[in-house]
Amino acid sequence: MPAKAAKTPEARETPEAGETPEIPEAPARRGTLRIGVGGPVGAGKTSLVAALCRTLGEELSIAVVTNDAHAAQDAAFLVERGSLDAERITAVQTGGSPHAAIRDDIAANLEAVESLEAALDPLDLVLIESGGGSLSATFSRGLIDRQIFVIDVAAGERLPRKGGLGITSADLLVVNKTDLAPHVPADLEVMRRDAAAQRAAGPGGIVRETPLPTLFTSLSEHPGAPAVADWVRGLIVEHRSPAAA
Amino acid sequence: MPIFHMTRSALLLLADSRFPAGAHAHSGGLESAVAAGRVHDTATLHAFLTGRLHTAALVAASFAAAACHCENAETLAELDHEYDIRLLSPALRTASRRLGKQLLRTARTTWPVPRLNLLAATPDGGSHHPVVLGVVCAAAGIAPEDAALCAVQGAITVPADAAIRLLGLDPGEVSGVLAKLAPPADRTASKALTLARMAQLKNDFSMLPALGSPLLDLAAEDHATWEARLYAS
Ligand SMILES: Nc1nc2c(ncn2[C@@H]2O[C@H](COP(=O)(O)OP(=O)(O)OP(=O)(O)O)[C@@H](O)[C@H]2O)c(=O)[nH]1
Ligand SMILES: [Mg+2]
Fold first, then answer.
1. With 90 as the cut, is the pLDDT of residue A8 above it?
2. How many domains does chain B have?
């Protein structure tokens, strides 16, 4: 398909004096808000993504990128529980290193996001679920606008105290499965206090002006994740306002 | 005078398996070979990589060298077509185009020079990886012989990295396997360069090598249907 190439018939490697060479640009960002959802294995990332799709699906055009080896299972779950069309879901493989695919080499995820944005234009929201990873597996800012880190009450009440980049610096920390607290047992007050302390301080322990937010959820009791959905709505409003640019 | 001068450091940057262009999620057929028990230790890995050197690596390297030399979009489209018809497995064709697209995207931010515009007209799926690699090399100030070397290295380091993860092989021993393969890898790259030059002289890219590995093609088709897989190919 050489027609379009006629625009630059020869590679001009020697820009004339004063002339700006035509530098190839990455695909322009569309208006889509990109949110990463990370956290350890089994914390409830896919459940949260499905909940958001169902709660926000009426008001927003949403797509999802998954990073799990079991792509077909994730897709089936999102179609069933998130009422999402299958064409709105793309799976990316990570070579067994979930953190690499969301942070060190985001090429495959970026390509998946851009393809969804092009195919489903205009898209309001893309949710990128990372494969279950370590407490320090956070998303690159080159891939997402905001990130949610999901942890699980059943992993023990000491988890927030351990910190790690996800807990200390994700834009939203979700402590999920509060319904399991009596069975663990875990004291939710201790978790709340420790999480607040972790999120009040930035890198190097410098106190943040405003602590980062934390939400406690039980997706089995509130399958629509209303509080997290409200947080996303707030971001959408912010993202759409001209000042955001 | 290109914006990026001929530089060996650029070659090291691009050939590094940490260069963020998506290759880490590909195994070059190794995930299937491991599952089938064909590769299970350093000796069988060595045999697998030797096979790659004489087939996929040589083909990819000759296309990368030819593309690196190429200065117009029409000829690149021809090269892309020639590479396409050499890949028998649709899954491998898709994987190669995806990798090409991802490499081009990363290169745009790494070496933002007009040379990359040569690929601007390629269809939605993107050009094949070796073709993009050649153009990216030219953009980065890497010569055709080094573009060939880079393609050869990629063809063997991708499965070698996957072997470390999938089989838990000692990473030092895997490096040892790659070191042993360095002389034949160099020879493959020189041969690829010669073949690319001959094709250029005759202005006939159908002369470029067309070596395949039927078992890898079949395995790639099967791999694409797995219920759970770590690697994209
Ligand atoms: N009791 C309880 N179970 C939950 C809750 N949220 C999720 N689960 C269950 O926890 C299990 C794991 O949930 P997923 O949503 O698959 O977790 P994930 O983080 O996506 O898991 P990976 O992708 O495998 O890392 C499932 O069996 C869910 O039904 C909750 O709030 N309470
Ligand atoms: Mg999941």
1. no
2. 1
Ligand 1 touching residue A223 (CB < 6 A):
no
In a domain, B22, yes or no: no
Distance B128 CA to ligand 2 centre (A): 32
DSSP letter at A152 equals: E
CB contact under 8 A, B98 and A105: no
DSSP-based three-state secondary structure for A127:
strand
**A120 CA → ligand 1 middle, Å:** 28
Q: Is the CB of A180 within 6 Å of ligand 1?
A: yes
Fold (CATH) for A33-244 = Rossmann fold (3.40.50)
pTM of the model: 0.91
A1-15, A93-107, A121-135, A219-233: least confidently modelled range: A1-15
* Sheet order of strands, A172-176 included: A89-91, A62-66, A125-129, A33-38, A146-152, A172-176, A214-216
The shortest CB-CB distance from A95 to any of B3, B25, B101 is to B25
Other C-beta atoms closer than 10 Å to the C-beta of A25 total: 10
Domain span at B169 = 29-222
B208 vs B11: CA distance, rounded Å = 24
B12 assigned to some structural domain: no
List C-alpha distances in Å: A166 to A30, A147, A172, A231, B88: 27, 9, 9, 18, 43
Q: What angle do CA A182, A186, A187 make, to 5 degrees?
A: 100
Q: Are B135 and B106 contacting, i.e. CB atoms less than 8 angstroms apart?
A: no
The domain that contains B66 carries what CATH number? 1.10.4190.10
The beta strand positions in A16-74, using DSSP E, are 33-38, 62-66
pLDDT by residue, tens only, chain B of 233 residues: 345 677 889 999 999 999 999 999 999 999 999 999 999 999 999 999 999 999 999 999 999 999 999 999 999 999 999 999 999 999 999 999 999 999 999 999 999 999 999 998 776 668 999 999 999 999 999 999 999 999 999 999 999 999 999 999 999 999 999 999 999 999 999 999 999 999 999 999 999 999 999 999 999 999 999 999 999 99
* Domain-located, residue B24: no
Residue B129 lies in a domain: yes
